[in-house]
Specification:
With 327 residues, the protein is an all-alpha fold. The protein contains 14 helices and 2 strands; from the N terminus they run ααββαααααααααααα. It starts with a helix and ends with a helix.
């Protein structure tokens, strides 16, 4: 079907999808604010929170609607493999569990079990698309890591959504066809949500949004791993480096201290810095880092494994040094 192959390369189509996704997400955010007020869905200030006023949650539902609708359209119209049903099913599982948790909080372990099932759905989709075993296993592990990383990092205004947007824009430059379309839809949906969350938060993503963002970033990464040689895989991780570094280093630090790492806390580097510099400056600082990392990914693709790995090691050392200063 050459017509849709060329359509995915059409700037007009891609721009229209971006704008439509932003509009759907903005409408969903506005609806979520009204829904939260009707149902008393507010995150209250506390010692484990980084905000000081009651704020509605669940605003990420618009992002889920925009991205899921796009996936269903391309599947139903035959523009992509039916294996994408599995990926869409995983997104539904993560978002639905988050939506439930936003209304009636769930214990950590049932949520983790659902996330594992969703990760298996995405890994299954990758397998059905012909990826080798290493990519399939990596997709499963990445999904578990990124769903929870975005959930852990969704604590200050604008951070989680802006990071997902920058990741999606970076991936859109190195992916093709359906993954590129989905990357731009995700970026547009994040942009549509951000005015409701940054610089002042009228609503938070909620678990429905943060978990879905992590899942969608994992899906795009899996598409990148499947379509690029292994030598390029470390480079594909660069746009998500800030989220992974802060989450990973804080998790290791808490586990070494014998703390219950799965419980809410305010010990991430971004949370520590937000007390001194405010939400907006910290989110913009992380965005600057991730924007530079995404540009480095694009610039280093032709360099290959050795040069790219050297830059990655340097960036990780910088992350470690900067993170250590927040302790």
């Amino acid at each position: 079907m050459p017509w849709f192959e060329s359509a995915f390369e059409s700037p007009a189509l891609l721009a229209s999808a971006f704008v439509l996704a932003a509009s759907v997400s903005a409408l969903g955010s506005a609806w979520a604010i009204a829904h939260a007020h009707r149902n008393d869905l507010f995150d209250q200030p506390g010692e484990r929170r980084s905000h000081d006023t009651p704020t509605p949650r669940g605003g990420g539902v618009g992002i889920v609607v925009a991205t899921l609708a796009t996936m269903l359209i391309v599947i139903w119209t035959g523009l992509t493999s039916a294996s994408w049903w599995w990926a869409a099913g995983g997104l539904v599982l993560v978002a639905a569990t988050g939506w439930w948790d936003d209304h009636r909080p769930l214990p950590a372990w049932p949520r983790l079990l659902v996330h594992a099932i969703a990760a298996a759905c995405l890994a299954g989709a990758v397998h059905l698309q012909g990826a080798d075993g290493v990519v399939v296993i990596t997709a499963f592990a990445m999904t578990l890591v990124l769903v929870n990383a975005w959930n852990f990092m969704d604590g200050i205004n604008g951070l989680a959504a802006s990071q997902a947007m920058l990741c999606a824009l970076g991936f859109a430059m190195v992916l093709g066809d359906v993954p590129r379309l989905l990357a731009l839809v995700l970026a547009g949906a994040c942009l549509g949500f951000l005015p409701f969350n940054f610089p002042r938060a009228r609503i938070f993503l909620g678990d429905v949004g943060s978990g879905a963002l992590g899942y969608l970033v994992a899906m795009l990464l899996a598409a990148g791993f499947a379509s690029h040689p292994p030598a390029s895989w470390p480079l594909l991780l660069l746009p998500a480096a800030a989220m992974l570094a802060d989450t990973g280093l804080t998790l290791i630090w808490r586990m070494r201290r014998g703390e219950r790492w799965w419980q809410p806390h305010v010990q991430h580097a971004y949370q520590q810095w937000s007390r001194s510099f405010g939400h907006a400056r910290v989110s913009l600082g992380y965005a600057t880092f991730s924007g530079v990392a995404a540009m480095a990914m694009l610039a280093l693709m032709p360099v290959g494994y050795v040069g790219g790995t050297g830059v990655i090691v340097a960036l990780l050392l910088v992350c470690l040094a900067v993170w250590s200063r927040s302790r």
